Amino acid sequence: MAWNPNATRMELQPESDAQAAIKPTQLIVHSLAAPWTARRTYEFWRDSSSLESHFGLGYQGDLGQYIGTETRADANADANRRSDGTGAVSVETASNLDHSDPWTAAQIEQLIALGVWMHKRHGVPLRICRSASDPGFGWHGQFKEWSTSGTACPGKARIAQFKALVFPGIVARATSKPAPEQPAPQKPAPTEEASMEIAKLDEANGIDVDLADNVWTTLAFTDAVIHSGPRKLVGPTLVQLTFAQGAQAFVSGRFVLTNPDGSGVSGYGDLGEFPASGVPQFLHNQNVPTGKTLRFQVRARTDDGSTTRLIHRAVSGDYLV
Ligand SMILES: [Zn+2]
């Protein structure tokens, strides 16, 4: 068992004792498709899943370790533990729901530090894996053997960051050369936006709604309109739904654009499904065009015709005014 001294230990049992030993030869990075802290990810593995990763990394750089690195974890299909006893160590990282956003600076720093530790502690060689079983560093979608049915994880933006920043950062630091100069954070161009102010959207509604089985329902927060275009978002708009205790449904959400009178619905694609017990969250990252309003719809699937009671809903996010 090896525990990273830089990570907060949140040991998962019985997996940590029950699962087979591995000799770790790879580090594979993932996106969680959820904007969770390391602690929240631990609770999910503990309470809602028999799967787990070794590590979880929140947006703020909070790093949790759930399983010792010399014990098998589940995130990498065939690479979890090969017949020769070698296996991959996995790190899940907080992301938006379709893992399309880049890692934060804090996440990149922690991934580099973790990679250096994997090299020093376990001898993982300083190279990007050349095959599914080749020792080194990689990302989840890199080889089909690392997933059950193929995956785009951790997303295009993060694969680019892995190649340009994370892996070179690991090499530079592990070989004690100064880390490569990182591009300076982009300053906003001096446009009219610079003089615009950031406003906060923060609306909640605690009136119970009984959702019919498998039917899309538009939710009102203060009212059904979340944003009226034109509106430029600063960071994601987040919807969080809380269901009555014991709700068994699977929940999907979607953001839609409509005309101001609610007609002319067009969508951005379905998000989920998530178990109703898990306080599902949904993120939206697109600006709202002129003449359109942004609304949110939810669907709860029980498949036995029963309704699902939504007891609280909230939407938040920053935008420019
Ligand atoms: Zn993954």
Quick one: overall form? globular
The order of strands across the largest sheet is 1-4-3-5-2-6
Number of strands: 17
Distance between the amino and carboxyl termini: 53 Å
CATH architecture of the largest domain: 3-Layer(aba) Sandwich
Task: Provide a count of the helices.
Answer: 4
Q: How much is the average pLDDT?
A: 89
Strand fraction: 25-35%
Major β-sheet, in short?
6 strands, mixed
User: Which blocks of ≥5 consecutive residues have pLDDT under 50?
Assistant: none
Percent helix range:
10-25%
Q: Structural class from helices and strands?
A: alpha+beta
CATH fold type of the largest domain: Lysozyme-like
Bound molecules: zinc ion
From the alpha carbons, calculate the radius of gyration and give it in angstroms: 22 Å
The CATH homologous superfamily of the largest domain is termed Peptidoglycan recognition protein-like
* CATH class category of the largest domain: Alpha Beta
Order of helices and strands: EHEHEEEHEHEEEEEEEEEEE
**What is the count of distinct domains?**
2
Walk me through what this model shows.
- With 321 residues, the protein is an alpha+beta fold.
- The chain folds into two domains: 8-174, 3-Layer(aba) Sandwich (Lysozyme-like); 192-320, Sandwich (Jelly Rolls), CATH 2.60.120.380.
- 16% of the residues lie in helices and 30% in strands.
- The protein has four helices and 17 strands.
- The protein has helices spanning 15-18, 38-48, 105-122, 156-174, and strands spanning 8-9, 23-31, 55-57, 63-65, 86-93, 136-139, 198-205, 209-211, 217-218, 227-228, 233-243, 250-258, 266-267, 271-275, 281-284, 293-301, 308-320.
- Strands 1-4-3-5-2-6 form a six-stranded mixed β-sheet.
- Strand 3 and strand 4 (63-65) form a beta hairpin.
- Helix 3 packs across helix 4.
- The radius of gyration is 22 Å and the shape is globular.
- The mean pLDDT is 89.
- The site of zinc ion (ZN) has 4 residues, from loops.
- Zinc ion is lined by residues 30, 140, 151, 153.
